[in-house]
Amino acid sequence: PLGLRFPDGFVWGAATSAYQIEGATKEDGRGESVWDTFSHTPGRIKGGDTGDVAADHYHRYAGDLDLMRDLGLRSYRFSIAWPRIQADGAGAPNQRGLDFYRRLVAGLHERGIAPMATLFHWDLPQALQDAGGWESRDVALRFADYADAVFTALGDDVPVWLTINEPKTVVQNGYLQGHHAPGRQDPEAAHLVAHHLQLAHGLAVQALRSRGGPGRIGPAFNLHPCYPADSSPAAAAATTLYDGYENRFYLDSVLTGRYPADVLDDLGPDSRLARGIRDGDLDIIATPVDLLAVQYYTPIYVTAAGGTVTRWPTSQADWQQIHPDGLYDILTRVTRDYGPLPISITENGLPTTDALGPDDTVDDAGRVTFLRDHIAAAHRAIADGVPLESFHVWSLMDNFEWAEGYDQRWGLIHVDYPTQRRILKRSAHWYRSVIADNAV
Ligand code: FCB
């Protein structure tokens, strides 16, 4: 142990998302999402995997809740599947879909675990994709309706809401690189999508505010500290612009009501983004939030030519360089640049390849080291004034890791997919003691 105690009341949690764990994709009136379509498209997902069954959490949630209690979790971050609530992305909410999340939320409260609900973790109703997806401004308006239906059903029972999970990942993976749904490679579309995702965020915040009630709400951004790959002025300049696309585009719009001028300049006055921003949009986007959810996995090193290089050892996820100081840097920077908004770390974690041992153990020592070092970095950030409230491990359990299918295991809990048996990994036992001690 490092002997680093956290402030009293610090909240320890773990995170998941609907499509990655629930399965039951055709039950209780759920409609199709873009991830059903994408995962069923040959060649898109490693091994041809889909989320049809995933960790079967839709049926096994009660046992999973007991595991959360056994770990001592104080917070559980999950996401609500829009197509369970509105099969086609519009109209009256589907009661059976809402009921699942009501049962989940009630089960959390029974076990003393605070629910933290994400409204959108990438599973857009396919019908809305067919109507233009996030390229269509109307989808942001649909999102506000959906959010309102969810708040009406669950608003009094969920203390923390997150709007859109990692808008940047939808932009970059879904619309620039194309290895996530909907699988596009269209930079002009991508940045308009970014705006509509930000707009959807702001409209959902307004929907919660107009209902009143106790819930707090904020955006969930994956922030990447960007460092120059060398000491040249050109690398410094390239890093600043890179940071604009990675971080400031999202942070500035929500927290200052402006898109960064360097990014807008770089895209040009005729970009679909520039043409898609209407008067008043940024006021909506900048509707005051209660907290900022930060997800941290990796730093980025930017070359003079605007490319990237790898500086630290990578994990099984080739995009992930292991660099705990990056978490400290991004937390302190956000507090310095945007003021003392409460921050929750809503994702941090590592995939490991450790197999299930014969004695039903999984020795994921690498995950323990990774989490310990990142939690220590978070502790240092708190000591230096960052108002950090909580830390959530990605992920509670192994799950469908998008284009990587089931090959990458990110969980504290091992899922034996053929039997759906859950086995606590070494990291889960370790995390239980971190929670009990409120210290690493
Ligand atoms: C994040 C996603 C989450 C999971 C982790 C590994 O970008 O929000 O669903 O895929 O990465």
Task: Kindly describe this structure.
By secondary structure, the chain is of the alpha/beta class. 43% of the residues lie in helices and 14% in strands. The strands form three sheets. An eight-stranded parallel barrel has the order 1-2-3-4-5-7-10-11, surrounded by five helices. A three-stranded mixed beta sheet has the order 6-8-9. Strand 8 and strand 9 (308-309) form a beta hairpin. The protein is globular, with a radius of gyration of 20 Å. Beta-D-fucopyranose (FCB) binds at residues 17, 20, 165-166, 169, 222, 347, 394, 401-402, 410. The active site is at residues 166, 347. Substrate binds at residues 20, 121, 165, 297, 394, 401-402. InterPro entries: GH, GH_1_N_CS, Glyco_hydro_1, Glyco_hydro_1_beta-glucosidase. Belongs to the glycosyl hydrolase 1 family.
Strand content: 5-15%
Which structural category do the helix and sheet elements fall into?
alpha/beta
For the termini, the CA-CA separation is: 6 Å
| Global Rg | 20 Å
Assembly context of the chains: single chain
How many extended strands? 13
Topology order in helix (H) and strand (E) letters: EHHHEHHEHHEHHEEHHHHEEEHEHEEEH
Strand order of the largest sheet: 1-2-3-4-5-7-10-11
Secondary structure tally, helices: 16
Could you report the average pLDDT, rounded to the nearest whole number?
98
Tell me about the largest β-sheet: 8 strands, parallel, barrel
Segments where pLDDT lies below 50 for 5+ residues? none
Mass-distribution shape? globular
Bound molecules: beta-D-fucopyranose
Q: Helical content, roughly? A: 40-55%
Catalytic activity: Hydrolysis of terminal, non-reducing beta-D-glucosyl residues with release of beta-D-glucose
Binding site for substrate: 20, 121, 165, 297, 394, 401-402
Pfam family, one: Glyco_hydro_1
Keywords: Carbohydrate metabolism, Cellulose degradation, Glycosidase, Hydrolase, Polysaccharide degradation
